[in-house]
Amino acid sequence: MEQNNEKSGSREIAGAIIIAGIIIAGAILLKGNTAPTSDPFADITLAKVSENDRTLGNKKTKIAIVVYEDFQCPFCGAVSGSESYPSLIQSLKQRDPNWSPFVPGVIEDYVKTGKVQFVYRDWAFLGPESVKAAEAAQCAGDQGKFWEYHDYLYDNQKGENEGHFSNSNLKSFAKTLGLDTSSFNKCLDESKYAEAVADSKNEGSTAGVKGTPKGFIVKDGKIIAMIDGAESYASVKQKIENALK
User: Strand order of the sheet with strand 116-122?
Assistant: First the structure.
């Protein structure tokens, strides 16, 4: 009986080993047939560039740089070339002596040469004056002055929600820039772009934006690199050059 039990036990162990081997082999085979993902941005959903976006440059180029910004964000002002916060710029240069704002460099070297399209998007998160400033810039865009107003806002940053971007000041900026103040004021008072500004923020959040500036370098509609915060132009330039290859 003991001998029979030993033989029976041995057969059961051998059978279990064979079954385990088949399962492992199957798992390895299955894994081998599954294509590995090498795209770190595959799970990010970024809204496609459309006619509703404020853009600069060749709309037919394969590469677009989509940047989410907040007009009260000092870092956004810094990368746009504004010197409203000299102490911030000094701090950035202390960390990187070669630091320079990336937006002017991108526009000069890549947008004006037709290689890249630059896309601005609102991600107004710093309070009510951020929202109204974003709406005001869009209203200026109705008169073909979005980028002039965009730059003027950054050049006049003076703290967050302290009245510097009040409705009256936003209207004053429009007058200074030579806009038709009647239509601009009507656009702002009626909150014509309130929904568009809110939608832009929601779309940015869906793409994983958690702060500004936040950029996405897109080639043929696919994200291939990101811009995180106040990166130097040298850093962004290298990413663009890689995209152009």
Answer: 54-56, 116-122, 63-69, 214-219, 222-228
